């Protein structure tokens, strides 16, 4: 008998797995070798209280005039390594790859972790709520930094490492599983207008029908904790280790929607939380969904399907301001 696809199982099944996946995400990663001085904890602000910030973003992408643009995540004079893993290293300093970076945090009990974030305005970075709030304890992170365009553990300029000063979040994980899943997003306000230098992506909220019609059209970038494997031929130069260079995968997308939850088949593991699923619309790059969880078969420890958050919350957030 053909086994029913996991993403068509009852909602309660994958929500339990989602919570397990969240726990694994928050324990992965490590601190960047060049540490800045300790800073005060960011201010955390609920969506309902975001009006007072007057944060601005207009959903349109922006490429700085002095930045080149490239459709490939690697320089034209390099060769990408392709094998059973559909991911390749993102090693380009050009737009739109320049907009993506590593989110580095420290919990209240001094555990270090990392996620992925994307610039969506001059000083705004999009990521997951579970990348700034511990879902197990509901405690807010004591320190968060953003490392733009981090490749092999190196940012283009050390002075561009940004401190997160404020965070607007969708959930603090005190609600039920479905509510937490649908609202697992955060917008971080950083202390530097990095978007002027690195550019930023826009966003578009697409219908489920549009996703399914173009299910192999999206691409995904994230700082996965299992990537790159430097024992593979061609990856030796990425000496900083796993999680210090983002992975890129094309030809993936949303395969199902249920009760507002998006399922996608892009390759992800811990560390890629907060990474954007990106679409090329009208010749420009837009965030269309936000990766946030991997469902794993506990018997084989292999991924089955992944979950994503819709980005329509960004329209609601910035309409309020």
Record keyword descriptors for this entry:
321 residues, alpha+beta, Thrombin, subunit H, 6-stranded antiparallel barrel, 12% helix, globular, disordered N terminus
Summarize the structure.
This protein is α+β, with helices and mostly antiparallel strands and 321 residues long. The protein is 12% helix and 30% strand.
Set out the fold topology:
Layout: H1 11-25, E1 43-46, E2 88-89, E3 100-106, E4 112-119, E5 124-127, E6 143-148, E7 162-169, H2 177-182, E8 186-190, H3 195-198, E9 202-203, H4 208-213, E10 218-222, E11 247-252, E12 254-258, E13 261-264, E14 276-281, E15 284-297, E16 302-310, H5 312-319
Parallel strand pairs: 1-7, 9-15
Antiparallel strand pairs: 2-11, 3-4, 3-6, 4-5, 5-8, 6-7, 7-8, 10-11, 10-14, 12-13, 13-16, 14-15, 15-16
């Amino acid at each position: 008998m053909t086994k029913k696809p996991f993403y068509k199982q009852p909602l309660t099944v994958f929500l339990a797995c989602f919570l397990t996946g969240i726990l694994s995400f928050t324990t992965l990663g490590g601190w960047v070798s060049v540490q800045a001085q300790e800073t005060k904890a960011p201010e955390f602000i609920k969506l309902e209280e975001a009006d007072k910030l007057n944060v601005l973003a207009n959903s349109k992408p922006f490429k700085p005039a002095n930045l080149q643009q490239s459709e490939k995540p690697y320089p034209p004079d390099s060769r990408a390594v392709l094998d059973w893993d559909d991911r390749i290293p993102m090693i380009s300093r050009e737009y739109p790859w320049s907009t993506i970076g590593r989110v580095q945090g420290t919990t209240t009990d001094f555990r270090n972790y990392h996620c992925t974030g994307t610039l969506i305005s001059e000083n705004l970075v999009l990521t997951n709520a579970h990348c700034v709030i511990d879902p197990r304890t509901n405690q807010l992170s004591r320190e968060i930094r953003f490392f733009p365009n981090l490749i092999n553990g190196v940012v283009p300029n050390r002075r561009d490492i940004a401190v997160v000063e404020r965070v607007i979040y969708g959930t603090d994980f005190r609600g039920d599983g479905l509510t937490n899943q649908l609202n697992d997003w955060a917008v971080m306000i950083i202390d530097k207008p990095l978007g002027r230098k690195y550019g930023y992506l826009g966003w578009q909220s697409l219908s489920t029908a549009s996703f399914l019609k173009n299910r192999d059209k999206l691409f995904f970038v994230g700082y996965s904790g299992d990537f790159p494997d430097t024992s593979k031929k061609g990856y030796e130069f990425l000496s900083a280790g796993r999680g210090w260079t983002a992975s890129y995968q094309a030809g993936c997308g949303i395969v199902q929607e249920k009760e507002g939850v998006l399922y996608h088949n892009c390759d992800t593991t811990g560390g890629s939380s907060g990474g954007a699923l990106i679409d090329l619309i009208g010749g420009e790059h837009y965030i269309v969904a936000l990766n946030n969880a991997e469902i794993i078969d506990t018997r084989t420890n292999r991924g089955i399907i992944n979950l994503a958050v819709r980005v329509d919350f960004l329209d609601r957030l910035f309409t309020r301001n």
